[in-house]
């Protein structure tokens, strides 16, 4: 039984609490948040995905800290799960790694690529396991896509488009583009990371965006340039009109089939192949949050370093996002700088 401490009890902290609550091999024994209502479990933040947990986990029997440092220093804690606002990830994760605990860091890994590299370098020397919670790499239907692209089940991928759109989540942090990085870093990162995961590093990006709510890019459209294909684009934004809710989808055209996914549709994932009607694919009922936490627990239990997403890999996705930001500012395609600059 792995003893867990969750730091930060906003929307993602509450989501992680629910995932841990459903596992027999891990138990949350402490939480940390400066807000007393959140520590008591009274706060119920709304998730942006239908079915995402919004609080309700009983915290009456766990230790409650206002200071994250006190939780990290608690000798009972074996795994520190960091769900703080992005600018706080660096200090908290460095301290947890130095303390020798296992560390799970919510995405984005850090506010800047420079900070992300510092965390990646520290993770290589850390005595515990360290992983970044890139949930789309574990999401049902998206893990299928990764496998299908790699195996060339329907031939090579010729084109792929991704879209992630929502109304603004609200709140002080998400309204501050300097702190959150806007939709470009905090929201669109999911699809930028998945593009890298599926198709490798693009040679360049061409991005356009508008800033409407936060002072940072709130809606971005990016073309990822691969000299030998496929043609890949992703659109992400959180400035849709109030009441829009949340949508997440992809369409990938292979040499011999087309796959498309749309969250909330029945069926969510379809494959059109061989002149037949679209065929529905059955997907498990869990979310990527549950799968990523289960994967990391298995890594800790078996002593196997995470391979599906490494800290260094998560850092490189922030490098990609920063290249998109430079393309937005310049209005031209931007080649990717060398890794580990």
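^ Assign residues to that structure.
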């Amino acid at each position: 039984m792995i003893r867990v401490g969750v730091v930060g009890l906003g929307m993602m902290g509450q989501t992680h609490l629910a995932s841990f609550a459903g596992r027999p091999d891990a138990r949350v024994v402490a939480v940390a948040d400066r807000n007393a209502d959140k520590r008591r479990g009274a706060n119920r933040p709304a998730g942006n995905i239908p079915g995402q947990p919004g609080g309700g986990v009983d915290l009456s029997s766990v230790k409650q800290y206002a200071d994250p440092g006190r939780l990290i220093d608690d000798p009972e804690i074996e795994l520190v799960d960091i769900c703080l606002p992005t600018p706080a990830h660096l200090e908290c994760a460095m301290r947890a790694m130095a303390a020798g605990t296992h560390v799970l860091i919510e995405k984005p890994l850090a506010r800047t690529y420079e900070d992300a590299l510092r965390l990646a370098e520290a993770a290589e020397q850390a005595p515990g396991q360290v992983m970044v919670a890139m949930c789309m790499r574990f999401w049902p239907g998206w893990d299928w896509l990764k496998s299908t692209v790699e195996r060339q089940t329907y031939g090579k991928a010729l084109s792929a488009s991704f879209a992630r759109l929502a109304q603004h989540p609200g709140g002080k942090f998400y309204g501050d583009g300097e702190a959150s990085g806007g939709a470009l870093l905090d929201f669109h990162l999911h699809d930028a990371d998945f593009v890298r995961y599926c198709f490798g590093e693009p040679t360049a990006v061409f991005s356009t965006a508008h800033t409407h709510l936060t002072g940072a890019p709130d809606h971005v459209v990016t073309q990822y340039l691969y000299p030998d294909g496929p043609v890949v684009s992703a659109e992400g934004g959180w400035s849709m009109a109030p009441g829009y809710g949340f949508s997440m989808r992809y369409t990938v055209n292979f040499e011999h089939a087309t796959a498309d996914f749309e969250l909330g549709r029945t069926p969510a994932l379809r494959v059109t192949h061989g002149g037949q009607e679209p065929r529905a694919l059955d997907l498990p009922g869990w979310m990527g949050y549950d799968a990523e936490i289960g994967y990391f627990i298995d890594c800790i239990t078996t002593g196997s370093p995470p391979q599906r997403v490494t800290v260094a890999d998560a850092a490189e996705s922030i490098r990609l996002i920063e290249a998109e930001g430079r393309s937005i500012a310049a209005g031209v395609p931007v080649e990717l700088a060398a890794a580990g600059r």
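The chain has a mean pLDDT of 94.
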